[in-house]
Amino acid sequence: MKWVVLMSNPISIPKEDLNYTSGKLPVHSDPNPEAKPLPKVTIDGKAYEFKPGDTIMQVAERYRLHEDIPRYCYHPGMPIAGTCRMCTVEVEKAPKLMTSCSTPAGDGMVVHTRSEKVLKSRNGVMDFLLTNHPLDCPVCDKAGECELQDYTFEYGPQESNFKEEKRVYESATTKKLSDKITLNMNRCVHCERCVRFTDDVTKTNDLVMVNRGWHKELTVTDEKVGLVNDYQGCLTDFCPVGALTMNDFRFEKRVWFLDKMPSLCDGCSKGCNIEVHHDKEVVQRYVPIFNEKVNNHWMCDEGRLSYHTYADANRIVSPLLPDTASGRLSSTNWETAATIVNARVKSASKVLVVVGTDATNEEAMLIKGHFSARAELKYHSGFGENKALDHLLRQSDKTPNTKGVAAIGLAPMQATDVNGKDLVVVFRQGRAQIPKVEGQDVILVGVYAREEIDALKASNVRIQAVLPSLATIEKEGSFTNCDGITQSFNAAVAHRGKALALPKILAALVGDKH
Amino acid sequence: MMYNNEHFEPVITPNVSKPGCETIDFYMQNEEGYKALEKALKMKPAEVVDEVKKSNLRGRGGAGFPTGMKWSFMPPNPVDANGNVKPKYLVCNADEGEPGTFKDRLIFTKTPHRMIEGMIIGGHAIGSNKGFVYVRGEWHKEIRLMQKALDDAYAKGFLGKNILGSGFNFDLVIYKGAGAYICGEETALLNSLEGKRGEPRLKPPFPAQVGAYGMPSCVNNVETFAAVPYIIQKGWEKYAKMGPERSGGTRLICVSGHVNKPGVYELPMNLSINDIIELAGGVKGGKLKAVIPGGASAPMLRADECGVLTDYDSLAKAGTMAGSGGLIVMNDTVSIPEATYTLLKFYEHESCGQCSQCREGSHWLARMFKRILDGGGTQEDLDYIAKICANMAGQTICAFADAVTGPALSSVRKFRSEFEELITKGGLHGIGRTESVSHEMGGAHV
Q1: What are chain B's domains?
Q2: Stretch A199-207: mean pLDDT, rounded?
Q3: Within 13 Å and on the Cβ side, how many CA atoms surround B197?
Q4: Contact between A431 and A306 (Cβ < 8 Å)
Q5: Chain B partners within 8 Å of A127 (Cβ)
Q6: What is the pLDDT of residues B362-387, one digit of tens each?
Q7: Looking at the predicted structure, is the pLDDT value of residue B439 above 70?
Q8: Looking at CA atoms only, how far is residue A174 from chain B in angstroms?
């Protein structure tokens, strides 16, 4: 199985500023002496090669100098606005300071990102932005990951001469734009990333600025409908201040308590790269991390909120066996469960193994290795043929690894496959649907919620055991997404219940020890 | 009237006081109307551009950019990525909103055909078949008059298909703005024309490459277009001779404020501000104190600086600008801080709000001036005004922020003692000015 991991596209461990750099890499001139060398721009005394057409900001991103250039309105995934005036740099021979986000780099251009003139200008911008920004950082949910805070620390004036009344948007101090997003307009710095996001990325146009100048206010296009796009969580990712916050995370945790581990979203077959933010192994949120080939800077709300499945209080995290007298499922220890299921699998004459398409490539191989000699193997997602649900990321197949599981030589399960079998072992570790099995004994392995088990019991499914395994964020492995890209990941958080990794469960199921 | 200029003759306004001067018949009978068009259509487009270039006609909207050069920037045969020919658009900027400026309105109401003829010639020169007249939304009457003029021009065959049998087609459409000062900035105007928010665009690309609806476009002021027929008809030399080097022709100067005969004057540019005040009947109700020479955005001049000539370069040298030709005269009964506050309220209200400095700074300045007027000012405030202005000027997408700092900075620099008096004596009330005029003068609703 290891080969899959080695040959996959491992998701990167991101740098500090998650959303603000593109995947641009350094470029090098063709070593062939006859080839035309790439143009060079000098940034802070060092010459850098760049691709013709790059802006100064993009050159800085290529060489990871982006931290020297602060920005509000610029975002690598959106069109350039050039309005916040924070990213200005000094270009020799240019009469004015230039916005690095919009100024194309030129051959021989000499750029200073931290000259006195530049620092003075940035200080001025901060002075203006802070005049009307409420200084309520202690109770602001963005504190700790706020660009206004960071840039004030780095560039801002330490005091202000602003003696006038601050601007207050009476009607938009805590305004629910949808069930996911809350707006506090008083904190807005009018960078309009959010407006450009809905205009150019989601193309839903559901956010607009109304009024002009000092009164400029962000609002939803249709107040009756609110926000309608499926990527609302992204608004809070790139909102530089605490203006747009996600209801799901709002006031749940101070961000400096969060540990951040990269992983993959298993909410659909796209496999968006994410960072799992957790405090003491309790997941607080998912945020997307940049991957040009997969999800760019974005992820959908469905995936973003899918962590609730694993943090659910009703998730079954201890093996369950039916009580011999009443038939009720009750919690037991792994030794007892292992002995009983091992005997049951060995005594079965015809076994069907259903591999959910939310198993990792490695797990699928392992299941195949353990069962191919003694059972019929099929895979099952329950979502049918995958279709893209929009122009961005969302897919109709809500399982992450259909392509990967199919690639190891399994066929999709048909309804008739259960005929003639006396035992069905179901592996389901994410969002694959539980196959319909009536009349056969069933052993369930994976991630289940109590409601699901109750529903199966109610429809008289003969559950012989429930064996909880680890969820995606709790284990390592690799998924092959709908575009055929295989991505590997490590465990982001430790499992806090009694669920076991699949190899151990498999050993218990079909091992010879028992 | 003494113009000190033997070459001078009115280019745009020779007959504006005569009854019926706005009709097409009057224009054709008495002013050789549409003769220049006839002549221009027989010339090659490049020749027309060359003629305008040599006439030293400079943009009359405020920036004073040479018109012929602007026309020559238009790409000759633009094609898109698929090889399809792109249309080119000619846009007339009639969003006259600069406080103290009312010259375009005179052209609209008194001699609209001169502008229309200028636009058709301009369309021929840059190879455009479609023009837009972007009119400020408040001009209800003017829009009606202009529509009438367009209809008449269509009826006579000066607009539409195959104009005067030359094979050249040109259509003109009026587009009504929604009442924003910033839409007088050419790229904000283009955004507004497209139905977007009136916010200036990031340049480059300039409108000559990507303008209205993404097509190459050329935006000129009403007065600029109105000067074109004369240049074509009488030749560039006659026009260029009227003004000093690099500033050809005449200008419409809108004299307002404390003068005995306020109004629009068509003047050569070799006159000083003092000469113009004299022409306008002299200062009314007191002695001259200050003059704003080019619309509200131009920095003020003290009375002793008013000997400066009114051509573009002389005014620039004096630290101000010719702007849109709005000459606002203030006598010594005016409190400069109060007058400046009136202007700042206007700018606070009109900033589009996309650039940080302008959005926050225009408001901050207005509030600061208000506080000084109300008696809450300190000496540090005066220094801080200079600091705010330094942080705003030249730092934003368009020139609006510079326009805000024009009156704010010049008033504090040149009339600092008046501010200090307000600060030490407790505001307007303290110096005995209980009735504030600025509140009656309108401006922003805050």
Answers
A1: 24-242 (3.40.50.11540), 250-331 (3.10.20.600), 336-430 (1.20.1440.230)
A2: 94
A3: 16
A4: yes
A5: 391
A6: 999 999 999 999 999 999 999 999 99
A7: no
A8: 22
Contacts B391 to A, Cβ<8 Å: 121, 124-125, 127-128
pLDDT for the residue A152: 93
Minimal C-alpha gap between B299 and chain A (Å): 20
Tell me the residue range of the domain where A452 lies: 320-510
In this complex, is the C-beta atom of A83 within 8 Å of any C-beta atom belonging to chain B?
Answer: yes
φ, ψ for residue A321, nearest 5 deg: -130, 150
Query: Tell me, what's the pLDDT at B2?
Result: 61
Tell me the torsion sign for CA atoms B116, B120, B121, B125: positive
- The residue whose two tokens read 């943090």 is A311
Residue A204 belongs to some domain of the structure: no
Dihedrals phi, psi of B276, to nearest 5 degrees? -65, -40
User: Has residue A511 got a pLDDT over 80?
Assistant: no
Give B-chain residues touching A121 at CB under 8 angstroms. 391, 395
pLDDT value of position B445: 40
pLDDT range class, residue A313, cuts 50, 70, 90: confident
How far is CA A417 from each of CA A369, A380, A414, A438, rounded to the nearest angstrom?
Answer: 20, 11, 5, 12
CATH classification at residue A444 = 3.40.50.740
pLDDT of residue B444: 40
C-alpha to C-alpha distance for B150 and B331, rounded to whole angstroms? 42
Least confidently predicted of A14-23, A408-417, A424-433, B328-337? A14-23
Give me the residue from B182, B359, B392 closest to A216, CB to CB.
B359
Between these two residues, B309 and A511, which has the higher pLDDT value? Answer: B309
Task: Evaluate whether residue A252 is within a structural domain.
Answer: no
Report if residue A350 sits inside a domain.
Answer: yes
Name every chain B residue with its beta carbon within 8 A of the beta carbon of A72.
Answer: 356
Considering only CA atoms, which of B220, B123, B218 is closest in space to residue B172? B123
Which one, of A311, A309, A250, lies nearest residue A278 by Cα? Answer: A311
Q: Please list the alpha-helical segments (H only) found in A324-428.
A: 334-347, 361-371, 402-407
